[in-house]
Amino acid sequence: MRTRTRARAVAGVAAVALLAGCNAGAGSSDPTTDPGDGGTEEGTDPTDAEDDTGGATGEAAGGGSDETVRIGLVAEPASLDFSTTDGAAIPQLLLDNVYETLVRVDVETGEVVGALAEDWEVSEDRLTYTFTLKDGVTFSDGSEFTAEDAAFSLERVSSDAWTTSLKAQLDVVEGVEAVDDRTLEVTLSRPSNQFLYALTTRVGAMYDTEGVDDLANDPVGTGPYVFDEWQRGSRITLQRNEDYHGETPYFATVEMHYFRDPNALNNAMLTDAIDIVSTVQAPESLDQFEGGDYQIVEGTTNGEVVLSFNNGDGPFTDLQVRQAARHAIDHQSLLDTCWAGRGELIGSMVPPTDPWYEDRTGDYPFDPERARTLLQEGGAEGEEVRLRLPTLPYAVACGTVVESMLEDAGFEVTVDELEFPSAWLETVYTNKDYDMSIVAHVEPRDLGNVFGNPDYYTSYGTEELRTLLDEADAGTQEEQVQKMQEAAELISTDAAADFLFLLPNLMVADPDITGLPENAITESFRLAQLGRG
């Protein structure tokens, strides 16, 4: 039996965002850690909203069972603390599963809906948000969730306890007050379209005031699952939270198995070592499952595979050199060669599921002669450029194609692979010791985080772009769409990076697994939606 579903465009809501993660494997001959990084990553992180399975493979089962589901992924977390450790693999595992947020995204409609907050009101001046919290919610340690915990959690983001750059999403928060046990009031310094959406991401995670002593190893949340065990380099186990305030998850135990090698991941599925391949990392291998007793889910993500340029140092500080690189890439040929034609060409940092999407694939058409001319005019012909790749399947596969195309246009390219996450994060992401890299930014609405901050690894963040982002955040929804489109156009025409393609959401699972997300457009893999029927 085989079920195939195709992507459905999802409407979005106001916001700017960041980047995200990937997944894979289980029980294989080569299980190995492959965490996500602080704003960049690979693969996709399948996720789903409260009652929305994206029309993929059926309704999530309502009653609990004693069954275990085994999920294969490719990126193992480096830690369980996303307040101090970058990487999309952490929220993919914990957000909406162990930790919950006040609000979250309905992936079917794109709307922000209530989660731990039953409802909320916004003042006329858009500066005050008053949240009414759900009653009867407890943390996994047994303590009650109150507005005091919510205030503590949001205030903690702006403190030294949070060290990742993503904390900047809540810089707009001026004050937080627990009015009573079930009422939380948040005051902003200025109107912000991004604020509510930001609360659906990891910065909106709700912590127990007494449960933050060892977040890296012992997360305490209100979610449908609790952390059980971590066999590093192999798997992480979650157990059903028997005191969960919401609907009981079907699976009593979830095992997240991690692989680096895509073939080992596929073999684990073929030999019944896992029940779900959360992200197929060798799309050309899908024919192994086409005729078998498997379901294949094919949808979309917000994971832009980016050929990053170092805009702060080296040859790519020159506009003509950046333009040359963009003209040198035959994107359709690259997609066909390194990712079996699976995915979508978009030409920018905005996926079609965002409300300000525009097709920008025509900005830099494939033109190797033009690329050679620009390279000569930029004085970089024959100059060595370093393409430093993370050891992630899509980056390695596409890196050789990019290298060949750039060299055909006159670039001298040196390629080296950096172990992901540690070596790549230190060398490229932190130290900016690179000229080019390839990484999938898979966090939702990440244009502003990737290109709006001059201190980020891309070293872009021009004043013109930051002004557009500020105007988009403070304006009406119509103004937000217009300004975000202008921002995407600026990034593209200024060749701040090249946008290779948008990752597809490719999943393989047992035929009776239900609740699989068609589209992976948020930070989490909502495990409580899974069932067997």
UniProtKB/TrEMBL annotation:
Primary residence: other
Compositionally biased intervals (Low complexity): 23-35
Domain Solute-binding protein family: 111-441
Start-end of Gly residues biased regions: 55-65
Cellular localisation: Cell envelope
Record field: compositional bias (Acidic residues): 39-53
Superkingdom of origin organism: Bacteria
Span of the signal peptide: 1-26
Protein name, as recorded: ABC transporter substrate-binding protein
Lineage of source species: Bacteria, Bacillati, Actinomycetota, Actinomycetes, Micrococcales
